[in-house]
Every structure is written in structure tokens, then in C-alpha cells.
């Protein structure tokens, strides 16, 4: 069972979009979640496939967003050991408490299947 994680925050970096050599679209950005001014959490958000393409065309630094995904905690050792929190996004949307947005439906090719997009 995969438990989903929801986080509300602000896009804190310019979204970075790339397509791998295998043709996989990937968009990543940093997210700042601050329930209170001194209670800040940072996440790296990654989106794949169609979500990556839509996120790259829709998000800018400073946008208020809601992200639903799988939380992954990564630890590393060495000279400067640390921990990072990453969210593998399943859904990303603008937080309408922070403004208005206009939805433009993505065109889906006839051979696209929902299973390929996960």
C-alpha cells in the first residue's frame, strides 16, 4: 500500500524541466512549506511524464501550490551527512486561497493509456 502525502506551500525555485535519453519527461522544483514563520519545511518535488510537462508549463517560482505524492526521506553519509525530503508527485495544483488560475485541458494522444502515465 502506498500512502499519499499532501503538502501546501510555495514554489521556491524555478521549475527545471528535462527529458531523459529514454524519453521520460521530468520536472523538479523546491517547495517551501511554512505553517508559521519559524516552522519551515523544505521539499524537492519531482513530477514525471504528462504531469511533468504540465507542471513545467504552469508553475513559476512564488506560486502557491498543493502537492499530493509519495514522501521519500533520503539519508546520506560522508563529510557532511544529511537528510532530504522528496515528494514524488502524483498531482500538483495551484492553491486557490492564494489567487486565481485558468485551467487549460491537456490534449491526450489516442495511444496514451493511464497506466503509462503513472
From TrEMBL:
This is Single-strand DNA-binding protein. PROSITE patterns: SSB. It comes from the Bacteria. The keyword DNA-binding applies. The keyword DNA-binding applies. GO terms for molecular function: single-stranded DNA binding. CDD domains: SSB_OBF. Keywords: DNA-binding.
